[in-house]
């Protein structure tokens, strides 16, 4: 429940999105679950299918944002997605690293586009030197800046080992 707004039209909601955590933020496997390296059915990798996301993909993001739209935006209460980020896992190499990086770029692009389509305002969680230097403005990750500012995400890698998208 929202608090009573003593000044009309001055309340908003902030929401953080790191869904699925196993893809966006997890840095090692845990007793409750393993990391996902690949997100979005088109970006699944058949060379290591145990690391493909098994939940929290496009429809899940859209559904969560629709709930925020229905509960707040449709009633005139703005919603800011005040934190979101998926970064590539630096310990991966070769084809896995290629698929993981493409998946992370796609996740960020998908989240921004879905948030905007649902009337939400997305704000990327920037960390030092990612995607740019906060002091100088030097861009260290132009691909990430591109996907966050309306550009396209890279297509799934064409290595001949892409997993077939799951239905549903």
Q: What does the largest sheet look like?
A: 3 strands, parallel
Strand order of the largest sheet: 1-2-3
How would the global form be characterised? Answer: globular
The overall average pLDDT, rounded, is 91
**Radius of gyration (Å):** 17 Å
State the total count of DSSP E strands. Answer: 3
Descriptive labels:
single chain; three-stranded parallel sheet; 168 residues; disordered C terminus; alpha/beta; 3 strands
Brief summary:
By secondary structure, this protein is an alpha/beta fold. The protein has helices at 21-24, 58-71, 94-117, 142-148; strands spanning 13-17, 79-84, 121-122.
Protein model, in words:
- By secondary structure, the chain is of the alpha/beta class.
- 29% of the residues lie in helices and 8% in strands.
- It is built from four helices and three strands, in the order βααβαβα.
- The chain has helices spanning 21-24, 58-71, 94-117, 142-148, and strands at residues 13-17, 79-84, 121-122.
- A three-stranded parallel β-sheet has the order 1-2-3, with helices on one face.
- Strand 2, helix 3 and strand 3 form a beta-alpha-beta unit.
- Helix 2 runs parallel beside helix 3 and helix 3 (94-117) packs parallel to helix 4 (142-148).
- The chain is globular, with a radius of gyration of 17 Å.
- The chain starts with 12 loop residues before the first strand and ends in a 20-residue tail after the last helix.
- Mean pLDDT is 91; it is low at 160-168.
Blueprint of the fold:
Elements: E1 13-17, H1 21-24, H2 58-71, E2 79-84, H3 94-117, E3 121-122, H4 142-148
Parallel strand pairs: 1-2, 2-3
Helix pairs in contact: 2-3, 3-4
């Amino acid at each position: 429940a929202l608090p009573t707004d003593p000044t009309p039209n001055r309340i908003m909601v902030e929401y953080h999105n790191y869904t699925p955590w196993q893809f966006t933020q997890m840095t090692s496997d845990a007793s409750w679950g393993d990391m996902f390296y690949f997100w979005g059915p088109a970006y699944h990798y058949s060379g290591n299918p145990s690391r493909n996301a098994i939940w929290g993909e496009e429809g899940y993001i859209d559904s969560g944002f629709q709930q925020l739209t229905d509960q707040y935006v449709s009633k005139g209460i703005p919603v800011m997605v005040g934190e979101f980020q998926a970064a590539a896992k630096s310990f991966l190499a070769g084809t896995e690293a290629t698929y993981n990086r493409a998946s992370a770029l796609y996740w960020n692009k998908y989240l921004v586009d879905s948030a905007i389509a649902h009337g939400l305002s997305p704000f990327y969680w920037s960390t030092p030197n990612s995607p740019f230097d906060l002091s100088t403005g030097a861009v260290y990750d132009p691909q990430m800046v591109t996907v966050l500012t309306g550009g396209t995400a890279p297509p799934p890698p064409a290595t001949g080992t892409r997993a077939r998208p799951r239905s549903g």
